[in-house]
Amino acid sequence: MPRLSADQRHEVRFTLNGHPVCGRAGPRLLLSDFLRHEIGATGTHVGCEHGVCGACTVQVDGMLTRACLTLAVQVEGASVRTVEGLAPEPDRLSALQAAFRRNHALQCGFCSAGILMSLDAFLKAHPEPDEAEIRDLLSGHLCRCTGYTPIVRAALEAAAEIQNSQRELTQGETAHA
Amino acid sequence: MKPAPFDYVRADSLPEALAVLKAEGSDARILAGGMSFMAMLNMRLARPKVLVDIMRLEALATIELRKGEVVVGAGVRQARLLAWEGLTGHLPLIAKALPFTGHAQTRSRGTVCGSIAHADPSAELPLCLMALGGQVHLASAAGRRKVPAEAFITGMMATAKADDEMIEAVSFPVVQGEGTAFREIARRHGDFAIVACGARVSARGIRLTVGGVADMPVARDLPPLEGTALDDALNALAFELDARDDVHASARYRRELVRRIGRATIEEARRCRA
User: Fold this and answer.
1) What is the pLDDT of residues B85-116, one digit of tens each?
2) Range B154-168 burial, b when 16+ CB lie within 10 A, else e
3) Neighbour tally for A160: CB within 10 Å
4) Per the CB < 8 Å rule, is A3 touching B39?
5) Which burial class, exposed, middle or buried, applies to A20 when counting CB atoms under 10 A from its CB (0-12, 13-18, 19+)?
6) What is the domain extent for residue B16?
7) Domain count, chain A
8) In the prediction, which pLDDT does A171 show?
9) Which residue from A63, A112, B7, B191 puts its CA 20 to 30 A from B178's CA?
């Protein structure tokens, strides 16, 4: 049973967007601050720091997680995904990110990283969502620019696009067989 | 908005976790999902010297159906209970109430037992525990005991749990042949309830549980009333709950919600039973 003392920094090893990383954290260091200041992954934003605004939402072992309500030492050995892991290549956006851009689903962009991580996990579990389900999911995020409507539109468009590309992929495979 | 310093213990077994609680007393706190407790740490409303993380204890992450009750372990996250295939059949009230608990982004981490330990007067899970007459299973290095819901929640975020105890599980009785309904008014879906109502209706009568008004969820058993007799009973209950004004709603508005939402919830439970 490891006991990590308050006045020391301890090594924390985990996987960040598929790559093994290691940093040092005192027990009270929040995952949000650990990612930004120790690891240097500043894509995750910090808003309210008490779990309300949703800006810091990341995925830990596939679970949607408020990074500000999680300790760095809790992710020891876990797999963490952040907004930096969404784009397939450095110069290409994911279908969801591209739909956000097309639909003006962001203005200042402060809330976007968290919303993208929520929608990324949600669309994997619910490939054909309706508007009400998207709005229910977005209740866990605050956006003060868009009024949410363009975000809903982008999410529905991205869901349809992901579905179509997967259909083409399976049809392509059948054609080759 | 950063927590004050504390030691962090990653418990590998339940006896280890209980030994820390025994040694440190009120200086130690259990960390499970952390969705309420971490916010309190960030705001320094809680300043423990030691946190005991129990989320690596697989033995606590179980949902079991035994002897007419569903036993939910301390490691079970709210999203997992919501996705449990037996939920609608065995605990229909919780199936209806749990989607109102926080948001998808907090249900994914937050635990069922953690919400009950936090005992927020407007939270849905303590309301369901009270409505169903469930039990809280407490464990300490000295032994185990079960405490009924009414005795467990003692006030605003206050419970009968001693400093050296932790919640090992909660149990909800499976009730057959009833109609159930849950309704809640909040400023935004997933926010804290201004008023929340859970109703159970059987041939014998009505059990209405109201959250968000008094210091804790309050359950009231009523005979099978109809019409103005039911309105009168709800009006009396609304005044007995001693609603207060706060930034979210006036006491008068809360009483009005108890009358209206209470009635609508009971009627929905009746239709559900029919």
Assistant:
1) 999 999 999 999 999 999 999 999 999 999 99
2) eeebebebeebbbbb
3) 14
4) no
5) exposed
6) 7-53
7) 2
8) 82
9) B191
Q: Is B9 on the interface with A (CB under 8 A)?
A: yes
**CATH code assigned at B16:** 3.30.43.10
pLDDT tens track for B30-84? 999 999 999 999 999 999 999 999 999 999 999 999 999 999 999 999 999 999 9
Pick B6's closest partner by Cβ from A6, A69, A137: A6
Exposed, middle or buried, B48 (CB in 10 Å: 0-12/13-18/19+)? buried
- Domain of B70, CATH number, reads 3.30.465.10
Cβ of B35 within 8 Å of Cβ of A63? The answer is: no
Whether B97 and B168 map to the same domain: the answer is yes
At B187, is the pLDDT very low, low, confident or very high (cuts 50, 70, 90)? Answer: confident
Are the Cβ atoms of A1 and B3 closer than 8 angstroms?
no
List the Cα angle A31/A35/A39 in 5-degree steps.
135
Number of residues that this document lists for chain A: 177
Number of structural domains chain B divides into: 3
In a domain, A90, yes or no: no
CA distance A103 to A110: 17
pLDDT at position A49 is: 96
CB-CB neighbors (< 8 A) of B47 in chain A: none
Q: State what percent of residues in chain A have pLDDT above 90.
A: 92
Q: Give the three-class secondary structure for A112.
A: helix
Q: Chains A, B: CB contacts under 8 A, how many?
A: 111
